[in-house]
């Protein structure tokens, strides 16, 4: 599974996800400061699942109708510490194989998945 981490994703979590063998590109390293629309476009072009903490992607996909990437995983967990976020992200990402084709919202208690338009 190819992943594209939004600029707001914590560096420690990016490093931890990569250490587990996941193919992950991080916007903060590769193209800092690009717009959310550009991030979404890049994820779509590269066939990557976008991981983010930014709620704006839901609006871009569902309200504005922008083409969605392979999938979006929106983390809505409190910003405890980078290490807790890293552990949570790994556990969530490795808990399923059906992320593609969905806009998924991860909170402390559950994962909600909505098919992409």
Record the SSE blueprint:
Elements lengths: L1 E4 L5 H9 L3 E4 H4 L5 H11 L2 E4 L3 H8 L7 E5 L6 H12 L8 E5 L4 E5 L2
Parallel strand pairs: 1-2, 1-3, 3-4, 4-5
Antiparallel strand pairs: 5-6
Helix pairs in contact: 1-5
CATH fold label: Rossmann fold
For the record, the CATH architecture stands as 3-Layer(aba) Sandwich
Number of DSSP helices? Answer: 5
Oligomeric state of the chains in view? single chain
Low-confidence stretches: none
Query: Measured on Cα atoms, how large is the radius of gyration?
Result: 13 Å
| First-to-last CA distance | 20 Å
Main sheet makeup: 6 strands, mixed
Q: What is the helix content?
A: 25-40%
Mean pLDDT: 93
Strand content range: 15-25%
Order of helices and strands: EHEHHEHEHEE
The count of domains is 1
Number of E-type strands? 6
Strand order of the largest sheet: 2-1-3-4-5-6
CATH class, anyone?
A: Alpha Beta
Using the alpha-carbon principal axes, give the shape. Answer: globular
Task: Classify the secondary structure makeup into a structural class.
Answer: alpha/beta
Structure description:
There is one protein chain. A hairpin with a 4-residue loop joins strand 5 and strand 6 (111-115). The chain is globular. The chain is an alpha/beta fold and 117 residues long. It has a six-stranded mixed β-sheet, sandwiched between helices. It contains five helices and six strands; from the N terminus they run βαβααβαβαββ. Helix 1 packs across helix 5 (82-93). The protein has one domain: Rossmann fold (3-Layer(aba) Sandwich), CATH 3.40.50. It is 38% helix and 23% strand.
